[in-house]
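[audit] Reproducing an earlier prediction to check determinism. Same input, same settings, fresh worker. If the tokens differ from the archived copy the diff job will pick it up downstream; this log only records the rerun itself.
[audit] input (257 residues):
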Amino acid sequence: MSVPNVIIHRDADMLAKAVAARVVTRTVDVQSGKGSASLVLTGGTVGIATLAEIAASPARDAIDWRNLDIWWGDERFLPSGHPERNETGARQALLDHVDVDPARVHVMRGPDSGMTAEESAEAYADELRRAARPEDHGPAPSFDVMMLGMGPDGHVASLFPGMPALYETRPVVAVHGSPKPPPTRISLTLPVIQGSREVWLIAAGEEKAGAVRLALSDSGPMQVPAAGARGRQRTLFLLDRAAASKIPSSLGRLSSP
């Protein structure tokens, strides 16, 4: 796994703009090299703001949207179109405004599909297996970029401290009894996160500062799941000043005034 690189931006608005620009640049670079790219989206305030910034940017047209696979790191087990679903936020902020191939938008299904949470997780695992190539060396694609938010407790995706999902070797699991509502969710697991080429952890706000500090320390992923979120080739902690306020100044570099 890669050693994290910390980049600090002035505030949450600047963070969303900077991450959006980084998404466009990285996606274009990957597509220039191999024709297609894969991107894992995250929800949350900054995650959705980032997608809105991509939609608003003239540079978005540099992306070949028809040759981009869109995945999610986790999803709330709620019906399609529910306002609290990550998918709903992503569609409203970005996906409804660009020419994505619907077959390449990989949605975690909700209860309106007729599936249980366990069946939805297995269906998503099947999609991952079908998309994986021999060079990925596992049951899921080695995603080009996986974006992850981080909770004040250090959770990433729907992997919460001390919960059984952190011990899973399956690529996707149903999570029950989430400490953050709604209680039932679908989540990728740490092995899939760690199989990604790049992992970007995005956090804003002083309430995240303690978790960021622990995630960059020697804490174990069972206590601080974000400590286990590392990419194979690159790991970025993309933070605003408030979220970075408790880490040593030697760990981060200020990227914007």
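[audit] rerun output stored. Observation attached for the diff report: The chain has a mean pLDDT of 95.
[audit] end
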